[in-house]
Amino acid sequence: MTPTQAPASGTPLTFSRWVAETIVRWRIIATVMALTFGVAVLAVVLIPPVYRSRTSFVPNISANSKLSAGMA
């Protein structure tokens, strides 16, 4: 099956046919969109936000990092 052919018939799938099939199934599409939106709203309301931050400081100590006597 190529992307330009309809799965059930041998006629090619055109943009206008795709739009027509989408319009025919508008109730299913609207239902799925509404359910997805509802689940997203519930997740935003029910799941508390968690903010975490972690930091660390590691000094770089080496013999060459000391200032020379002339710079002090």
Write the layout of secondary structure elements.
Elements (H helix, E strand, L loop, with lengths): L14 H10 L1 H21 L26
Describe this entry's structure for a reader.
- By secondary structure, this protein is mostly helical.
- Helices cover 43% and strands 0% of the residues.
- The protein has 2 helices and no strands.
- The protein has helices spanning 15-24, 26-46.
- The longest helix has 21 residues, at 26-46.
- The chain is elongated, with a radius of gyration of 31 Å.
- The model has no long low-confidence stretch (mean pLDDT 82).
Number of strands: 0
For the largest beta-sheet, the strand count, sense and barrel status come to: none
Shape descriptor reads elongated
Beta-strand proportion: under 5%
* DSSP helix fraction: 40-55%
Q: Helix and strand succession?
A: HH
Radius of gyration: 31 Å
Task: Give the N-terminus to C-terminus distance in angstroms.
Answer: 78 Å
* Number of contiguous helices: 2
Q: Which regions are unreliable across 5 or more consecutive residues at pLDDT < 50?
A: none
Sheet/helix structural class: mainly alpha
Short description:
By secondary structure, this protein is mainly α.
List the keywords.
single chain, elongated, 2 helices, mainly alpha, 72 residues
